[in-house]
Write a structure and sequence with these properties.
Layout (H helix, E strand, L loop, with lengths): L3 H15 L6 E2 H6 L4 H9 L3 E5 L2 E4 L6 H11 L4 E3 L1 H7 L12 E6 L7 H5 L5 E6 L10 E6 L2 E6 L1 H11 L6 H9 L6 H10 L3 H14 L19 E2 L5 E3 L4 E3 L6
Parallel strand pairs: 5-6, 9-11
Antiparallel strand pairs: 1-3, 2-3, 4-5, 7-8, 10-11
Helix pairs in contact: 5-7, 7-10
Length: about 260
């Protein structure tokens, strides 16, 4: 005879076996998967699940990892959040020119959204440097799948990550480091660069991207159609007492202008 307790144990076994280690489990999503609030409470009481804040749990014994939180927000809650900028380039193996701070992860959240308290209040394996901004007209443009252990999440592809770095220049990201990152993007696909450039809302970031790509002498640069990219009007001064780049109407550090 199959008892109710046996059915519940079977369900929790299925949950534990099919979901990757480290994945945060959001309560409303679990309900949609057939795990009622009452059942979730019983699993917490029994020690199968551990609460990490209102509406969020992990399987008992799982570590708190940022990838598990980001993946949950992306796939279970439909939140536009992702690892981006220099942190994405580092994960893609494209930031080897710089000394990367592994203890800090740059992430971006749709400017209209607020992160849940369980996300901001927990201590993850890395410090989260979160920027709330809607930088692209299409929030999904330029994202790519990235596997971190058993977890899969969306992160910025190389072109988008580069634009995110440039958006943060010069106050929140050193402009000379951004140029060094661009120098390393020799294998960027022009069709991907074109797509994110056309969708990007930041005139400063787009102008810097084009100038740095041209200055780096990348072979893919000649395939970029700048006429399809809105580069705005007027000068953009990023530093005081800099040098002027007439083609892109930028005032930059003198060492970056030749």
């Amino acid at each position: 005879m199959i008892t109710e307790d046996k059915i519940k144990k079977t369900k929790i076994n299925q949950l534990i076996q099919k979901l990757p280690r480290g994945l945060v489990l959001l309560s409303p999503w679990l309900v949609s998967e057939g795990y009622s609030y009452e059942l979730q409470q019983r699993y917490r009481t029994s020690g199968w699940l551990k609460s990490i804040g209102k509406g969020a749990m992990v399987k008992s014994g799982d570590s708190l990892v940022l990838a598990g939180a980001v993946a949950a927000l992306q796939t279970q809650a439909g939140v536009n959040i992702h690892v981006g900028g220099q942190s994405a380039l580092e994960r893609l193996g494209l930031a080897h020119y710089l000394q990367v701070n592994a203890q800090e992860t740059t992430s971006f959240l749709d400017g209209k959204s607020l992160p849940p308290l369980w996300f901001t209040n927990n201590k993850w394996e890395t410090e989260i440097k979160l920027f709330r901004v809607s930088l692209f007209r299409n929030e999904a443009v330029g994202l790519t799948d990235y596997r971190d252990g058993e977890l899969t999440m969306k992160i910025s592809g190389a072109a988008r990550a580069m634009l995110e770095c440039l958006y943060l220049c010069p106050k929140q990201f050193p402009i000379t480091e951004a140029y060094e990152l661009m120098e390393g993007l020799s294998t960027l696909r022009p069709i991907q660069a074109q797509s994110v450039l056309e969708q990007c809302k930041s005139v400063k970031a787009k102008r810097l991207f084009l100038y740095f790509a041209e200055k780096s002498g990348h072979s893919w640069f000649k395939y970029i159609d700048s006429k399809q990219i809105d580069l705005g009007k007027g000068d953009r001064g990023l530093v005081n007492d800099g040098a002027y780049v007439a083609k892109y109407q930028l005032v930059l550090p003198k060492e970056l202008v030749s």
